[in-house]
Each structure stands twice: as C-alpha cells, then as structure tokens.
Design goal:
two-stranded antiparallel sheet; Rhomboid-like fold; elongated; 2 domains; 270 residues; 6 strands
Length: 270
Amino acid sequence: MEIQRVVCYRHPGVETRLSCSQCEKPICVDCAVQGPVGQKCPDCARQVGRAQVINARPVRRSSGLSALPGVTRALLIANVAVFVAGLVPSLESAIFENGALFSDLTMSGESYRLFTSAFMHGSPMHLLFNMYALYILGPGLERRVGASPFASLYVASALAGGTLFALMNGGVAVGASGAIFGLFGAYLVIAYERRDTPMGNAQLRSIVAILGINAVIGFIVPNVAWEGHLGGFLAGVAIAAIWSWRRQTPRDMVLTGVVVAIAAIIGVIV
C-alpha cells in the first residue's frame, strides 16, 4: 500500500504534516507563521498583516474645545464672547449697565440680571479663574449626568448665587462664580457617595481642600462676592443630593434644577 507524501507548497522536497489554518495548504516548520489562532502560511500571514495595518490607521481625535461636551463648550464660548464684547468701548457701558447684578434693580423686578450677570466678568483673571474651573469640572460632570441636567444645574446654581448676593449685599456683582461653586457642590456630593473607594476618597479630600481655600479667599480678598459663592454651592449640593436620593431620570433631574431656579427667582422678587 503506497502512502502519499505531503510536502510543503514552497519547499517540495520537505515532507510535512502541518497545514495553514486559513487556506489549509501544507507548510513546513520554516514556513509556518504563528498567528493568534494556529499557524498560517506566508501568503495568508501577509494578508492578515496588511489588514491589521489598514485597521491600525490612526483615528483622528478631537482636541481643545471640540473635545468638550456641548454644554460645557457653549458656556466657555459664551463667557469669553461676552468678556471680549465688553472690551469694545462702545459696548462696555451698555453691557455692564444692562447686564450686571445691581441688587436694588434685581429686587425691583429686573430678575433677568441674575442670569445675565453670570456671563460677565470684571477682569481677565476673574474670567480665567472661572473658565479654568469650568474646563476642569464641566466635562466630567456633564458626561456623568447628561447635557440637560448639567445645564439645569449650572443655571440654577448661578441664579441661586445671584439671589443670595442680592438679598444679603446691596452692591453690584458679576461673574460665573455662583454657577462654578454649584459644580463644586455637586462634585462634593458625588465624591461623598463614593468615599469608600480610593478614587472617591481622593476626590473628596481634594474638593474639601479647594473649597476651604476659596472660603478663606472669599473673606480675605476684597470685592469677592462670597454670598454668590455660598448660594451657588448650596444649590449645587441640594440638586445633586436630590438626584442621588431619588435616583431620578434625566427628565426629573432637569425638573429639579428648574424648581431650584424658579425658587431662586421668586426669592429675590418677593
């Protein structure tokens, strides 16, 4: 009985019992290319290699503002745009007089100033501090809770901060600090819930330290509207606590922010 000899398709003089796992052509030890699943002949190995090169083409990733979630990006642009517009001599007075939070005018019916003043800043450093905080805090929080709940949290905190300032201080204020401290408040609640994890514990200590530093600055540095900081912070804590307590849907989360915002406006009008 004659036994058929199987030889390598590239080396006819070499007998083998190996075959390509893809095309099943006989291959010798020298020709076998080890793949993720079995060995392959050189031809099939080259095809896989080309496919991997094609699939490994670098993916273009967004950077800068384009990498930020929508609401955070829009808020950054809006704040910077208002500040730049205020540098134009012909617009400076109009923007300040019609948008700043004058306590007496706000409590006399011009409650819209609670909102407009949150997009105005008194100096480049004032703008830089608030926008840097928004850049650091905003993306993570927006991705965690969603765009609409994040927007409601930001606006409600801004209104609450402005309301407490108008009720406790008879002066004039501008700035997004109330909204920013609302984000700090929300992060504090989230970190406190996760305090039993290493990451949550580290975040909690970091946020407490930052808040402590800002609290000291608010009482030491002149012309800092600490009332706005406190009002925004309390609103952020309250909103995030309700979110956590009720385990709300995104729609309910937005409603919570809206309720806090309406309460702030009513508080300054009544």
